[in-house]
Write a structure and sequence with these properties.
Elements: H1 6-13, H2 22-39, E1 43-50, E2 57-63, E3 72-76, E4 83-84, H3 90-96, E5 110-121, E6 124-135, H4 136-151, E7 153-155, E8 159-161, E9 167-169, H5 178-181, E10 187-189
Antiparallel strand pairs: 1-2, 2-3, 3-4, 5-6, 7-10, 8-9
Length: about 230
């Protein structure tokens, strides 16, 4: 949700039964504008909320001039004070994958994971239990990154790529037509393309380089289920 149209977006999303209280909405509207100013972001998006046992995490993301460039994630526990999260890494994802269950709602909380590691002492090799401390902040970073890669999507035409490389918001975009909105090819993953780079020149012949510069949902293969039509 773009911070500039946050109240309308929250109204539309409240039909799912997961709305925000009026005071939370007011705090978000004010604080996200300050985040945009203080961090000098081109756009600030309200990513959503992750429920915790003690408190909930409210997540926002800041975008620079290039909309497909590096995305900065921030979190808040009260919708007023925001903290910048570090970038996600593969090592962080592997380390936090062993943590299951609900978030605590405390970024300084440490999970304990016991794993068997091979130890060497002289000529003797044996396995011993090692306790690994995993911070909830790292888990939060990893989960946000995984969700972005899996389900962050954008309609075709909402962004356009200039001949010089940067991706900008298409100010003339007014939404998809009813017919196009029913097609998976009308939606893209809102992350750096992976499959597109592996396509041949023949496969790219019918693509518009200013609009079709991300991976389409058309060729996604669902895991563990199937598309419903």
């Amino acid at each position: 949700m773009d911070s500039e149209s946050l109240l309308l977006s929250l109204e539309l999303a409240s039909g799912s039964g997961q709305g925000l209280s009026p005071d939370r909405r007011a705090s978000l509207l004010t604080s996200l504008l300050l985040v945009k100013r203080d961090y000098r972001y081109e756009r600030v998006l309200f990513w959503g909320r992750i429920l915790g046992l003690v408190a909930d995490y409210y997540i926002a993301q800041g975008l620079g001039e290039d909309q497909l460039g590096e995305r900065k994630s921030l979190y808040s526990l009260n919708c007023m004070e925001w903290s910048l999260l570090p970038p996600a890494t593969e090592e962080m994802a592997a380390q936090t994958a062993v943590v299951k269950g609900r978030f605590m709602g405390d970024p300084s909380h440490e999970y304990e994971h016991i794993e068997m590691q091979r130890m060497t002492e002289g000529d003797r090799t044996y396995e011993d239990e090692v306790v690994i401390q995993i911070k909830e902040e790292s888990r939060l970073v990893s989960v946000i990154d995984q969700i972005d890669k899996a389900v962050a999507i954008i309609p075709r035409g909402a962004l356009f790529k200039t001949p010089f490389g940067p991706v900008h918001v298409n100010r003339t975009f007014e939404g998809l037509t009813l017919a196009d909105s029913k097609k998976l090819s009308s939606y893209f993953h809102f992350v750096e393309p992976v499959e597109l780079k592996n396509k041949s020149l023949l496969e790219k012949a019918d693509l518009d380089p200013s609009l079709d510069f991300m991976d389409s949902l058309e060729h996604d293969i669902p895991k563990g289920c199937c598309w419903m039509t």
